[in-house]
Amino acid sequence: MPTILDSVFEHFFRNNTAIMLLTDEENDRILDANDTALRFYGYSLEQMKSMSLDNITSRQQAESDDDNRGQVVTHNCADGVILSNIKKYFS
Q1: Cβ contact 41:77 at 8 Å
Q2: Could you tell me how far CA 42 lies from the centroid of its own chain?
Q3: Would you give the DSSP letter of residue 62?
Q4: 21, 25, 57, 78 — which has fewest CB within 10 A?
Q5: Is the pLDDT of residue 73 over 90?
Q6: How confident is the model at residue 59 (pLDDT cuts 50, 70, 90)?
Q7: Mean of all residue pLDDT scores within the chain
Q8: Which residues, listed in sequence order, are joined to residue 82 by a DSSP beta bridge?
Q9: How many C-beta neighbours within 10 Å does residue 26 have?
Q10: Burial of 85 (0-12, 13-18, 19+ CB in 10 A)
Q11: Cα-Cα end-to-end distance for the chain
Q12: CB atoms within 10 A of CB 21
């Protein structure tokens, strides 16, 4: 049974204006994506769930960001647009 905390997290995740992906830390498979991420990358939720971070991240070497809390990477969108300097944070 979902708890209040589950409901709060679900609301935070679904309605956030930040791009958010939930991934499996062992294999980088995308488990879920919020609507902002779907609009940004141009994929459907079903497509995103069939992918891993490797499918949207360029093979370029990721660089640590200034505060060492994440990495700066290049991402690829469904329409072929390549986006540079995307900050990837871990939690």
Answers
A1: yes
A2: 12
A3: P
A4: 25
A5: no
A6: low
A7: 82
A8: 76
A9: 6
A10: exposed
A11: 25
A12: 19
Contact 73, 60 (CB under 8 A): yes
pTM for this entry:
0.74
What is residue 19's three-state secondary structure? coil
Range 4-89 classified under CATH 3.30.450.20: yes
Q: How far apart are CA 49 and CA 8, in angstroms?
A: 22
pLDDT band at residue 65 using 50, 70 and 90 as cut-offs? very low
**Separation between Cα atoms, residue 14 and residue 11, nearest integer Å:** 5
Structure tokens at 39: 């609009």
Q: Is 61 exposed, middle or buried (0-12, 13-18, 19+ CB in 10 A)?
A: exposed
> How large a percentage of the chain has pLDDT more than 90?
44
> Is the CB of residue 83 less than 8 Å from the CB of residue 74?
yes
Which residue type is seen at 48? Answer: M
Sort residue 17 into left (φ over 0), alpha (ψ -120 to 50) or beta: alpha
Record the tokens describing residue 90, joined without a space: 């871990």
